[in-house]
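Run: sequence + magnesium ion -> complex structure.
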Amino acid sequence: MEGSINIEKEDSVVNSGLEKENRVLKETLLNLRKELNKFNERPLVVCEVKNVFGDRAMIKLPNGNNFVVNVSKNLINKISASDLVLSEQRSLTIVDRLEKIKTHSVENFIIIEKPSIKWGDLGGLEDQIMEIKEVIELPLKKPELFKEVGIDPPKGILLYGPSGTGKTLLAKAVASSTNATFIEIVGSELNQKFIGEGAKLVKDIFQLAKEKGPSIIFIDEIDALAAERLDIGTSGEREVQRTFMQFLSEIDGFKSLDNVKIIASTNRIDILDPALLRPGRFDRLIEVPLPKAEAREDIFKIHMRDMSMDEDVKLHRLVKDTEGFSGADIKAVCTEAGYLAIRENRVKVYLSDFLKSIEKINGNDFEENSIMFG
Ligand SMILES: Nc1ncnc2c1ncn2[C@@H]1O[C@H](COP(=O)(O)OP(=O)(O)OP(=O)(O)O)[C@@H](O)[C@H]1O
Ligand SMILES: [Mg+2]
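>> structure
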């Protein structure tokens, strides 16, 4: 008796094992069939909707031909002109709608942010700040004032001066004070990364700026885009020229009281195409020079704000020793001095730390120059 019970038990174990295996195989088969069906499906055509008439619509195919086609039931009243849709190949019936991908692609390529730089983070740039407030901040905040007085504020300004003097900071600070979207593009990247796409990208960027307004488009290294070209022989140069032309036409295309402002920045004002500086385009040039003594003092104070320092640190000494330093150099001096203290297990930074870092940064500059000039 005992033996037969055991056999039955074993049988049912074997059976359930087989059933399980069977189930798995069936599922696999189903999945493979589904995959196979995918390969057999005909591709859908991406078209643009031109017009909708109830359950029919006019679409434009990628080859430029227009057709009037049926709209599948679930899409009636859900599509409109300029939508991208998918059409079945033979009848061209619209079967699906694509989410807008247009603006999405630009957003992947540029930096968009809401900066939090305050005017107080900028040292020694009072004149520049005043001018930017007048030509960028005021028109964005109080456009009615300009309408009343009847003048057009500039559409864009050009910041020029040596590297590390606070041009990017100024642009970010005004974006922050006007709570504007800050869209940053770099001239050289526009040329290198987007070969053949530069002009389209410029168009999309301005479109995006309008949608996200108020916004500030910041173009760093504008010289890479707008250098005066004497001969445009190679296709690369023609491409840059096309991007630049598109850029000019976008600037001409919006009104000075629209909520988009452009700030461009360059270290090489000497090589810019004069077309850029024509009235109605960048008609305000603001120089951002290397900081003089008083300005250096301000910049030191800003970067020392949170540092814990020994009493022997004399600001006037640091200011005296940093003739020719940019704001970025001064920041580097402070950081470096902090490191020297940490290296010696101190939490207080001494005057000697600062002096050593000034020497080091002076040395760096000297090395760079000697590499450049032989
Ligand atoms: N006037 C300034 N006040 C305070 N900090 C400054 C100033 N100028 C420069 N700095 C410091 O140097 C850094 C670099 O400055 P910024 O990026 O604005 O220079 P830039 O003029 O745009 O240089 P580039 O021409 O190389 O782009 C800033 O993040 C800031 O820490
Ligand atoms: Mg910069």
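>> summary
The mean pLDDT is 87. Residues 293-373 form a domain with the Helicase, Ruva Protein; domain 3 fold (CATH 1.10.8.60).
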